[in-house]
């Protein structure tokens, strides 16, 4: 195990940065994404109309991927308990109908049942606006095979891009916070609306699937607009690709004709990244900026003036050192450093109280620490040329790894959007018999 960087020691910041390859603990992937500022939120200084609070569920693509990012998220995975494919289809039909209803601000199921039966909707969102609720579904590798068993006759239809994620340098993954056969992400501008959606979908899964793990998250837009900040205090989202660029989205986000039943879908990788905030908060400002490669207050790349100025990866200081250090997170995660690879991030901060951490810290830093950090969510056309390529470099070289630990992980195929009268992922099951 490596001791965290002591910024009060006699070592120079520049020396620590250039030596980061031998110090890596876990890949950061913290400060280069999120949604672009102009894409994120409706204006807060204008009252929202009921129509503006509704994000359509049905469509070519699933909602919640290029949708302007909402302020709250809850991500959950499920393991399938059933042995029959018909039950899986039944569940997906139930979820599709309920998700469409709840996205319009309605109950998960039509009400009117007798008083002596459990309610068909728990009612925790009664009277609340739809709050731009989106529900995005994903299929994990376990839907196709689990422990080598093809439970539902789907193994031959597993997409090539739905690979098992490799073990990255520094991973300390917890099984209870990783993987799953199915995934759901509910996002809304009201946390109660998002949580209500998860509860109702969980109820509809009774007897077919069991919830495995859940991660909630939040992000807060500045009142005057602009880019949000993560828990490290840096602007998070400046370099995310624009969702308004349809050509770019077709190239790096949406699956093409080669994807078969996944055409118009996307792949999502999620990572629960705990940040050692107590350690970060005691790090000098100048070193923080060199770790990220940006000015903390303004968000500009080091050596530049404005947040949206492009990274100048060739600029050198008077001593011949790169202005943006070789181990800076913004450099290593940039498309220029990764053969043009890009991903679309919809990351959320999380705060889950405190936890005891001893595995990676020396005795003088062990004990109860904030269990907080970043729930990293990234969509892409192919994880092999997207997240995996980028994160291999980050896991080995990013100096931010001294402050972060990846403890949860998952990869899911998010099928195209459902058409009215059909259900999510319907094309996967077409033509199957038996």
Automatic annotation (TrEMBL):
Ranges where the Dyp-type peroxidase N-terminal domain occurs: 62-218
Which coenzymes or cofactors are required? heme b
Cofactor binding, note field: Binds 1 heme b (iron(II)-protoporphyrin IX) group non-covalently per subunit.
EC category: oxidoreductase
Q: What's the catalysed reaction?
A: heme b + 2 H(+) = protoporphyrin IX + Fe(2+)
User: Mind listing the UniProt keywords for this protein, alphabetically?
Assistant: Heme, Iron, Lyase, Metal-binding, Oxidoreductase, Periplasm, Peroxidase, Signal
SUPFAM superfamilies for this protein: Dimeric alpha+beta barrel
* Compartments where located: Cell envelope; Periplasm
* Main subcellular location of this protein, as a coarse class: other
Q: Which family does it belong to?
A: Belongs to the DyP-type peroxidase family. EfeB subfamily.
NCBIfam families, alphabetically?
Dyp_perox_fam, tat_substr_1
Oligomeric and partner information: Homodimer. Part of a ferrous iron transporter composed of EfeU, EfeO and EfeB.
How is this protein named in the record? Answer: Deferrochelatase
**Which gene underlies this protein?**
efeB
